[in-house]
Amino acid sequence: MEPLGIDDASLMLAIQLQQEDLELWESSRKGKHKEGEIPDSELAFETYRQELESFQTLVSDQALSLSIARAVEADQGILSALAATDEQSSKDHEYALRLSDDPNARAPLESEPAEDNSKDLGEDGIFEQIRALYAPPPNQVYNDDTDTFDFIPHAESSQWAVARPMKECTGCLDQFPPLALTTCPCSHDYCRQCLVKLFLAAFKDESLFPPRCCQEAIPVESNRRFLSPELVGQYRAKKMEFETPDRTYCSKPSCSTFVPPPFVQDEVAHCPRCGHKTCSVCKGDSHSGICPSDIGSQQVLRMAEENHWQRCNSCGRVVELAHGCNHISESNSHPITSGLSS
Length: 342
Hints:
- By secondary structure, the protein is α+β, with helices and mostly antiparallel strands.
- Among the domains are: 1-28 and 39-108 and 115-134, no CATH class; 165-243, Herpes Virus-1; 244-279.
- It is built from eight helices and 15 strands.
- The chain has helices at residues 8-29, 40-99, 118-122, 125-134, 158-163, 192-204, 229-243, 295-306; strands at 140-143, 148-151, 167-168, 175-176, 181-183, 189-191, 212-213, 216-217, 248-249, 258-259, 264-265, 268-270, 277-279, 310-311, 318-319.
- The strands form seven sheets. It has a three-stranded antiparallel beta sheet, with no helix packed on it.
- 12% of the residues are buried.
- Its EC number is 2.3.2.31.
């Protein structure tokens, strides 16, 4: 079971379906842009494709690692019993040689303390790390509908529970193996589930962003092993949104998606989700001409009217005759201020 309550097979199927959707979208978009130009939408989809491939590799490696750890745990008792049997047989053989007065017999057995092979058979640190990193806690499963973790009791191997040291999670106060916890800059420890809850809460409440403990931000890169690629992507998107001054959101009520600055051109914001156009000045639906909410531009227009300045019939920009004839041609300069003199 995964930390988000999804088994590996379901995760792999979900990834495969999303990859097929990307391929279908790519085939439908071929030849729909100028040669040599790469639209922002294609860059976004390529980034998403790479995230899916990375997540697919993570799930595959995770399943293999956990399978190895479980196999070692399951076989530990058998291996220990076989090792003990071999050791006893060796001792019996040596004891028989001593009784036969064989000069080649070894010294008395009391002088040879038995070797403890238990650590070599099942308590090796590498398998402890594999289990700690990839095995979910024994009693919690994430619920997508409620953004909470449901309690599902089931037994845990007594060998694992007794052999490994435990530390307390600052969030839920449960005990976990040290490697199953992340340590924040303030030295507090959090389990994977509590860390995810901190991030999800910060995504919904800007006052909690970035996710932090004791007023110190929790670094993302050093905690990638605890955070899914999807969650990291959401973090980066929210970081861009919350750091953007004078944000623009899609004016379509059923959408209201944040429009990143690269999608805003000439005061028109193109929603990356639904494609709806929004005025970045008044935040309403896109419209032609100078936005009535742009007070500065409106003042310039009144000044132009009072001074009988001319405006381009095509783009509405104020122009001035500097030289040449009275023919008006369109310029790429900023609207309103183009060609004005004091």
